[in-house]
Amino acid sequence: MSSPTPTPELRRRTLLTAAAWSAPVIAVAVAAPLAAASQELEKGLQGWVAMTTTQTTQWSQGFAPRPVTTNHLTIDGSGTPPERGLWVTGTSARTKLANASITFYSDANVTWTPMRGNSGAWSTPTRTGTTRIDGVTCSVYVTTYQRPITATATHTNLDNQLVFRAVENTGRARVWARRSITVDGQEVAFMRGPITVG
Fold first, then answer.
1. Among 2, 23, 27, 28, CA closest to 13
2. Which residue from 19, 47, 167, 168 puts its CA 20 to 30 A from 71's CA?
3. C-alpha distance across the termini of the chain, in Å
4. CA angle, residues 133, 71, 69, in degrees to nearest 5
5. Residues with Cβ < 8 Å from 8, sequence gap 6 or more?
6. What phi, psi does 47 have (nearest 5°)?
7. Cα distances (angstroms) measured from residue 70 to each of 67, 76, 159, 195
């Protein structure tokens, strides 16, 4: 794997919401839904992946049991295109697609586990080291697409049922995401974030 530090060529994208990365947004002169503004303009791993916090509550043991709430980071890419999902635009039946991955960078050091609804198409995010982004020391977690990708028409959908949850209590965390895919032998990648969850 190449250095996990983002290169200057990668453009930062704006976030549509505080907790979800969706299609990049550009300024347009006519009124249009934000999610539709640029989803057909460029090749790359487009779509929607949410990074949220899931809370679980358990009762403590002892003389005076009390509820203890734990915050878990959650990655959820599930849904149905075009509102949700992951896809590559600008493809044809001849386009060669490979090496789809999402790298998450976070100031939370966690272990990920698949959750109900996860299809297994994406590997469980694995910690590959640390790097610094915007002056923040981040753990690096990589998930890769495990299935062959056959390009179709102008819009190629990937299995987007990637649902993972951090085992540990995380509290508040800052998260960045780098999406990457090889299109006709060339890596297409971009960075989004940071967002704060929790």
1. 23
2. 47
3. 30
4. 155
5. none
6. 125, -150
7. 10, 18, 30, 20
pLDDT tens digits, 22-55: 433 222 222 223 233 333 346 788 888 888 887 7
Q: Would you say 14 and 159 are in contact if contact means Cβ atoms under 8 Å apart?
A: no
Q: Residue 103 carries which side chain, given as an amino acid letter?
A: T
pTM for the whole thing?
Answer: 0.75
So what's the pLDDT on residue 62?
A: 80
Length of the chain: 198
Instruction: Taking residues 146-170, report their average pLDDT.
Output: 91
Three-state helix/strand/coil letters over 22-72: CCCCCCCCCCCCHHHCCCCCCCCEEEEEEEEEEEEEEECCCCCCCEEEEEE
Q: Are 155 and 91 in contact (CB under 8 A)?
A: yes
Q: Residue with structure tokens 């590997």?
A: 123
Q: Over 70: is that where the pLDDT of 180 sits?
A: yes
